[in-house]
Amino acid sequence: MKIRLDKAISDSGKYSRKEAKTATKNGRVLVNGEVAISPEQKVFAETDVISVDNEVLRTEKFRYLIMDKPKGYICAAHDTKHKTVLDLLPRELVKIGVLPVGRLDKETSGMLLLTNDGDFAHKVISPKSNIEKCYIADTDIKVTQSDIDAFEAGVLLKDGTICKPAGLKILDNNKCEVTVTEGKYHQVRRMLAARGKKVIELRRIRIGICNLDQTICCGGFREMTEAEIAKILGKLNNN
Questions:
Q1: CA 102, CA 2: separation in Å to the nearest integer?
Q2: Are 3-56 and 132-207 equal in CATH topology?
Q3: What is the mean pLDDT of residues 101-130?
Q4: Is 160 exposed, middle or buried (0-12, 13-18, 19+ CB in 10 A)?
Q5: In terms of pTM, does the model score above 0.90?
């Protein structure tokens, strides 16, 4: 569907509607390589190439990001006491409503998805979708086969909550790999605590069949590829 050029530009988050109109009237806007006629010009935001001052804008409706979340940041839109993951994003992405998909606690690092597609986010975090989240945990005491059996059966937390069956794999040097399909509050830490293990470090490395891109620096992010989005959507559509 075609929309007004000034709206498409403002939807990118980089310019206000007024700034978009001014840039267009001053001949600074190109649509598919041609100088735009007017702010009212109709364009296909999803497919037309729109640039302002020779910078191509991202004008698609939804954005999907992968971030390597650092420790010390919380997954919230606003907080008066703590830094949030949105502080790591450019203003234009925050402006169009990009938010974290689910949560990693302040002291947990690793893979975090962010999007302004609410339907996609809801499906990813819903327990009904059975999307796996995989973590590497460093514990004070090495896990045992007994712990693995308990995870497979469904761990009973100290508050009486029973978790869905989960995966637990023993790694080297007091490290283990935990795979869950739920998103309870501090779930991995609480599951291991219920087995007498204290988590020293926790890092998420995978969501569904998408692994954390090792080329993303700590605190950095990139756009998800169409293939990555398709992998997650494919999993959702198969449930």
A1: 33
A2: no
A3: 92
A4: exposed
A5: no
Cα separations (Å) of 97 from 24, 114, 123? Answer: 25, 10, 18
Q: How far apart are CA 195 and CA 208, in angstroms?
A: 26
pLDDT digits (tens, 9 = 90+) for 134-147: 999 999 999 999 99
Report the distance separating Cα 115 and Cα 110, nearest Å. Answer: 16
CA-CA distance, 167 to 159, in Å (whole number)?
A: 21
Q: Provide the sign of the torsion angle of the four alpha carbons 114, 118, 119, 124, taken in this order.
A: positive
Annotated catalytic sites, by residue? Answer: 105
- What are 36-62's pLDDT values in tens digits? 999 999 998 878 899 999 998 877 778
Mean predicted lDDT score pLDDT of the chain: 92
CB 5 within 8 A of CB 36: yes
Q: Classify residue 78 by its DSSP letter.
A: -
CATH number belonging to the domain at 64-127+214-237, selected among 3.30.70.20, 3.30.70.580, 3.40.50.300, 3.30.70.1130:
3.30.70.580
Find, among 20, 184, 11, 182, the residue nearest to 98 by Cα. 11
